Amino acid sequence: MSSRPKQKRVLSLRDLIAGYNQLPVISIKNLEICSGDVVALVGESGAGKSTLFAAIGGAINPISGTLLIEDKVQSPEWRRLNISRTLQAFPLLHWLTVGENLTLAAKTKGVTLPAPSSILAHVRAEHLEGKYVNSLSGGERCRASIAQAIVANPVVLLLDEPFNGLDGRVKREVADSVFKFARRRESAVLFASHDIGDAMAYSNRVIVLKTGAPTTIGMEVASGEFGSLEKIYSFLEEDGDI
Amino acid sequence: MEIFSSQSSLKIFRQEIGRYVTSVAVAGIAWQITVTAFDVPKYLLPRPLEVIAVLFKEYPAFIEAMYYTSKNMLVGGSLGIIAGMFTALILASSKAARWILEPYLSIFQSFPRESLLPLLVVWIGFGAGLKIINAMLLAFFPVSVISLNALVNTRKDYIELVKSWGMTPQNILFKCRLMCAVPSIISSAKLALPYALIGSVLGEFMGGNDGLGNIIMTSSATFRLDRIFASILLLALLGTLGVGMITFFQNTVFKRFYLDN
């Protein structure tokens, strides 16, 4: 899963510090993600992955630093439309069907949705359109959640623990769909995981976080690179995480 | 709609009616046998058959009284439920409004609202207005308190989700918080309707010439316990039908709002 040529820089974080109530949770010195990239962010629970996603997605304001998307500081409206998130455990509004969730998401974002099934097709989940959320399996919820995140064709897609609780086959199918979407749309995908195996299998770059106060980037490897898994384990061993 | 085409709700409704009728019939038979066996004087405890007999004998008066009481219960209860929801929405929409007005809810919850009844008599007299306003007052508080609690304690992940879509606070209130609060609002309405019935009957106790409460008061003075029990039976029927009606809507129209839908 190597990077393709002619990638454009989509997301750049420089000296970014994010946290709550002015208390830094995560600090990113320099991180760049290009179009078509699927980058895994690995760290233990509470390391600050969700906080970083909240800052990139605009749910919270960074304490300091620069966040550029397509090399520009974008307005909150632009970010709302072009950066999408899935949340941990894939919440969707349970009184609506999957199709109705997608329609509401699109309407709220101000985009015209031709038909929910056209979005669901990206994640091979057209059959879920009329189903209520509570009747979905874990894998179906994951697909539906990713579908609500891509209704507006986002430039940056943030997936928070997307593979949690899914079996291997479903993980592979979901990952394939996300990769295809990222390539077709030339989006950048950043997914958080606490599982190194998932991160290596379903991304083309892995960023390992070093937990601290605040959390920082510990190391970065290309998933397909020879010996990358050993490098990660060596790093974690030195860091005392294993 | 799909929910109406389902026969299961109607089937459950019919089964519930059967269960209630059987339960009451068993108690009635036990009561009839006990009172007859111990020869209890009817001015202390009438026989169920006498209660049924008076219901049939004086049915025009009972139907008229039941209509009057149920009308006041439904009008007052509905107004109380609507006002309670409206108040909860206003308080949930603004922290400032909540800061100023929430203490009133606590204060009015802390004493029996029935103590306001003599004041209402002075202000609006003994007419239907008294019963309706009292029913409304009693129905209002459970709905406002329970709904407000549900509206401000919406699941955090839902709020985070709709915020990630860019939903405005006003839309979050109506399209997410209110929808999430539907089960709590239904539960509060189930509490409120019997309260409205109590409010209506208490108003009838205070004065006027109509309603089942009035029959109870006048029959008490003449030791007509059969008429009192007949009125109580009809009041129980009214309350049960009211709650049953809400339960029916809960299981049909509002079913999708329940997590186990």
Q: Can you walk me through this structure?
A:
The complex is a heterodimer of chains A (242) and B (261). Helices cover 33% and strands 26% of the residues of chain A. By secondary structure, chain A is α/β, with parallel strands linked by helices. Chain A has one domain (9-239): Rossmann fold. In chain A, helix 3 (98-109) runs parallel beside helix 5 (138-149). With 261 residues, chain B is mainly α. Chain B contains eleven helices and no strands. Chain B has helices at 2-5, 8-37, 48-57, 59-93, 95-109, 117-124, 128-152, 156-164, 169-206, 212-221, 225-251. In chain B, helix 4 (59-93) packs across helix 11. The relative contact order of chain B is 0.14. The chains are: A alpha/beta (242), B mainly alpha (261). At the A-B interface, helix 2 and helix 3 of A face helix 8 and helix 9 of B.
CATH topology name of chain A: Rossmann fold
Number of helices of chain A: 8
CATH homologous superfamily (4th level) name of chain B:
MetI-like
Strand content of chain A: 25-35%
Describe the sheet with the most strands of chain B.
Answer: none
**Which whole number gives the mean pLDDT of chain B?**
91
Determine the CATH superfamily of chain A: P-loop containing nucleotide triphosphate hydrolases
What is the C-alpha radius of gyration of chain A, as a whole number of Å? 17 Å
Which features would summarize this protein structure in a list?
heterodimer, A: alpha/beta, Rossmann fold, three-stranded antiparallel sheet, 9 strands, 33% helix, B: 261 residues, mainly alpha, MetI-like fold
Chain-wise SSE layout:
The complex is a heterodimer of chains A (242) and B (261).
Chain A: E1 9-20, E2 23-34, E3 38-42, H1 49-57, E4 64-69, H2 76-82, E5 83-86, H3 98-109, H4 116-120, H5 138-149, E6 156-160, H6 168-185, E7 188-193, H7 196-201, E8 205-210, E9 216-222, H8 228-239
Helix pairs in contact in A: 3-5, 5-6
Chain B: H1 2-5, H2 8-37, H3 48-57, H4 59-93, H5 95-109, H6 117-124, H7 128-152, H8 156-164, H9 169-206, H10 212-221, H11 225-251
